[in-house]
């Protein structure tokens, strides 16, 4: 659905391997998480991620996007001016110099090391192997956002349409990392707000958002004109 | 606030002057309503309209837009690709050929005649006299919208951020005309949705929107990260 899925709670405090006493079992499994701009070659993976989101939200009956419809409507403007996607990748190894994913001067990929208690068993690592990267790099999630506008502030903001992390990567801080990357971009561009929506019964997500400083606007409701009603109204009914 | 104000209910059925029986008092006062793309010279009027909206919503403490902030953030992209404003003008006379407002090939102004029972007494007609038009043309309202994106549909839509009609022009069908112009544009561009928000206690507006075929999404809440919280989160907190 047209909405940000709840991000996982923050990751546990990382345990750097260097602090593990000699002779004991290492506690941490480092994961190298990278956020980068999506590019047209990512569309097959993006399509699969959106479908997984539709399954998660039990809304597959509303899912009609195809790789072709995504390809023809995304990537039509420079990043941040219109629809923009950040891809979240994970790897057990540091990223090697990566011309394919480093060549956009508007956004340098950001890498963060996350130390996990247990290794992640990803049953779909072959399906989600990142195009053009070493075999170890896997796509774990994405965030789609675009500029919105506040007439009261007289300046733009960002609206987060979708935030999704694949199941086996949840509850490790990756959702927060994606949302934080959008907020950081908004601050860098001097934008006034970042907004998204949440389901009113999703108390865990609401608590998480409030703890990060977001306000939940209780009085506003979204109105949607679509399908036949849009056609009729747009044609002058 | 970042939201569409409720539009007035539809205008009464027009009474063409030709149907008035001879000898009786004419019932209709025709008003020529025109919807056109805003341009940079409209910014002073747009700024005043937004301020009136803030007064109407009792939210002037949140109003910080200036003519300069509007000028530097609007009109940075071609119409419909990013933030787009339709201006509503009214005149008691037909529009003469108007090079200034007819020169955008992406949108030809649309004129509609509305027959009113009583003439409109506009106390601000001098302030809102349209720039570059004959003295009779007055700006009565605006709608600001921009593309949003549905990953489930795999295509864009429009989000209506603000819809405002000045007080003396309300309840005559002009709000509906502005919203309809956005819907028509969405249909022409093959877009999948038009969305906006409404206050949950505004039962008249909700009824009006439902009658036009819109769905009110009851379960979703808007989350907003702004001000110091955005700065803190964007800077890595």
From TrEMBL, chains A, B:
Keywords from the named record: Acyltransferase, Transferase
Region (Disordered): 1-22
GO MF annotations in UniProt: N-acetyltransferase activity
Taxonomic lineage: Eukaryota, Viridiplantae, Streptophyta, Embryophyta, Tracheophyta
Composition skew (Pro residues), residue ranges: 1-19
Leader sequence segment: none
PROSITE patterns found in the cross-reference section: GNAT (PS51186)
Domain N-acetyltransferase intervals: 85-237
Alphabetical list of SUPFAM superfamilies matching this protein: Acyl-CoA N-acyltransferases (Nat)
Entry keyword Acyltransferase: yes
UniProt name for this protein: N-acetyltransferase domain-containing protein
InterPro entries in UniProt: Acyl_CoA_acyltransferase, Diverse_Substrate_AcTransf, GNAT_dom
Coiled-coil stretches: none
UniProt-listed Pfam families: Acetyltransf_1 (PF00583)
